């Protein structure tokens, strides 16, 4: 067990290193050099040259990557904060500390000041949505899987597949038309600021609803499929013919086995909810992580893109790790081999 | 009804009256069981025999009232201890299931929940049925695990099903069934998935528990030998109907129904040597209940059927005498059981040319290490010794059988021979050329043609999207036996004719064929390229008894016709004795004994061979068998015993020497080799496992 977790943790570190190198390299080689992207379109050639020198952009990419890691870990001073450059970048934490993600050229603040705030907003959105999606899809998936082909099962299947097929931008616009324009119950944007008319809670309703509608059907279908399969297994027959009450057959014998397959899918939803909800955030003007990443990429804010991508990768590997450990817990055939 | 339902000592445990079960599907209703009656008295053991699709499992599920959405009892009644099962409410039914009637299933591994430990699956039963506390339930479970002879019950309680062996899994399922002291135990092929020595131990256990628990048994099986060992009475089912019923003694000594006689004619007996008695397969295919014609269901396959008599109207079940022997046949009184005939072809003129010379062949697999030390590069590499120093010769045109329980390495040998794996050491010389180290990708098509295989499961080996003719024709084309379409077709038709299938079968798809027909095609495919050696890996163990006999005979005929050498891999010693000239007995990757078939089946035996033979369920009442049972589990092949591989389970172990010193090879007669420490003169004193006694009834 310990060996397994140690191995996995090793893999997590390796994945982070490899992916950070890839992300770094891709960004460095994107059109236009780093100096001109940092300075923006109105900088003079002279300024660009100074920055180019300062950042030692002629060095090989591997060396620059090591330097970037150096800044991140606080071994090296962040060159962008040097007052000589006249960029006016100033981080209250200083220019050399552990976890220095650099300076965002888009928002003109240290990356640490913008990224965690945005991530927090998205985490709140994801957590609420997940807290609704998970029990809802489990209950409906299990109920319909228990009685394959029944009225309930068919209704749920059709509803699920219909909802999943409606893209977020469509359902977002439709919901807005109903609840904002027609009924006037909810706000059309969710900037998460105290607006005179709408509370923060009310601003969460529509984005959460869009995510739930989009994701619920998919997860429910996964759970249903697995449940249907488990219910045909001989050990379920054994449990029934042992004289166990039906409730116990389901709760003790079917559920745990039925959870093994959809477990990974469910964890992938966390991933999706945190880093993949760009569309929903854009529709509702939600100040989230996905929208920030999109804006940073469009603007060419390399530092922020790099930092945000690393956070996204980290979330992905962590859910994967949690998934592997949980899978092992659920499935004794993997736990004891 | 409460008063009348009180069971007295005379009330049969189970009474089935004119049961008719149908499955209702979109196309209409399909009858599965027709007019089936049965009575089981308290403590009695009743065997239900039949081939696949005859409705025997449907009967079991109907008793449990568990038939899915499609199945329904259309007519008749099932009375359990005098109460009609159909009248029970859900709660009453639940109390009877697992409480009064318990079941044991064919595949113990899939019958147990993989994600719950053994203990909680056992403890549930008394907790639900008797409201026992967790503590009491634990004690009860341990007690019953002891009763089923489970070694170290406390440890097993914490294990998960995949962590214990197949035999132990079945013991757990039996313990689970016995925990609530049921009055009826339904066993549906409980030993079919087990090895022969494990099967023997489980059958002994069932027989013993039946007496100590006083439980009545409904034992469902296709194996007459097994039924003979554990049952008092037996019913033979065919196509949803009961054909014959009687006590074990009557039925095995003097079967009355042509189908029952046919079944006996189909099973090879371990007592019979090669060519002393030919198998007499029942012609045709098993007809399923929904394909039935008017009159006798067995009529189309019966040698005694009379047109105008047997194909008219319903055939009633009639009593043959006062003892309760019943038979569903109009002509039971005028049919004389046919006497088994000898084939009279004892020697088919095979020479003594060695085609295959196996010399010290070993196949080791490196074991992946998962410990932290191995991860850091320390620790020695461990090996699985799947085959170790195997040596024997195969003579042209003869049949050599490799027998042993699962995990003995017999399939690994076949893999090395066909080049799917390469040997670690030693050689296999085919016509003087070492092929043990040539992987199949590097083998010439000529070499591949020389060695062909017939597999256990014909479903998995025939491509479902191509016709049968394509499959056979491909072999012919690929190995360059014929090029143009006409010649290929002619060859395909010739092969179909050899395996006794009509030429029209060439255009059929595998799904249109029955299991036996598919296996015939597999035989035709293997022989189509005129191979020198055919390796048959359990070719008949997935087939029904009546079909099995036909395929065995076919295999022997085709082999003789082409003069092919046959390497037959099997766990079924009766079949092995029937068709092989030489036998190699393997255990844990090593050869324990080898020699001519008649020598291996007669003392001196290797103690393992003796135990194997003693475990075979024998259906022939004229044969008496010694009782030798192996205890313990087969040791792990990763860490086998240092001395004799068999020493941990050997009932004839002589001492220290067996554990520490590798036994020598002794040769009682040239060509017969036994790897054992026991001196030959002592081995010769061991009484034979099989002795023929005069039939009691005749």
Oligomer: heterodimer
Q: Strand sequence of the main sheet of chain A, in spatial order?
A: 1-2
Q: Termini distance of chain B?
A: 48 Å
Percent strand of chain A equals: under 5%
CATH A-level architecture of the largest domain in chain A: Orthogonal Bundle
How many helical stretches of chain B? 25
Q: Identify the strand order in the major beta sheet of chain B.
A: 6-7-8-3-9-10-12-11
CATH superfamily of the largest domain in chain A: MetI-like
CATH topology annotation of the largest domain in chain A = MetI-like fold
Mean pLDDT of chain B: 85
Describe the fold and architecture:
The complex is a heterodimer of chains A (337) and B (698). Chain A has 337 residues and is mainly alpha-helical. Chain A has helices at residues 2-28, 34-39, 45-54, 61-73, 111-146, 151-165, 168-182, 200-231, 234-241, 246-275, 278-283, 289-299, 302-330, 332-335, and strands at residues 103-104, 109-110. In chain A, strand 1 (103-104) and strand 2 form a beta hairpin. Chain A is globular. With 698 residues, chain B is an alpha/beta fold. In chain B, helix 8 (166-178) runs parallel beside helix 9 (196-213) and helix 19 (515-528) runs parallel beside helix 20. Chain B is globular and about 75 Å long. Chain A binds chain B through residues 2-3, 6-7, 233-235, 237-245, 248, 252-253, 256-257, 260, 330-333, 336, and chain B through 64, 66, 94-99, 102-103, 105, 107, 110-117, 124-125, 128-129, 160, 162-163, 173, 176, 180, 370-372, 375.
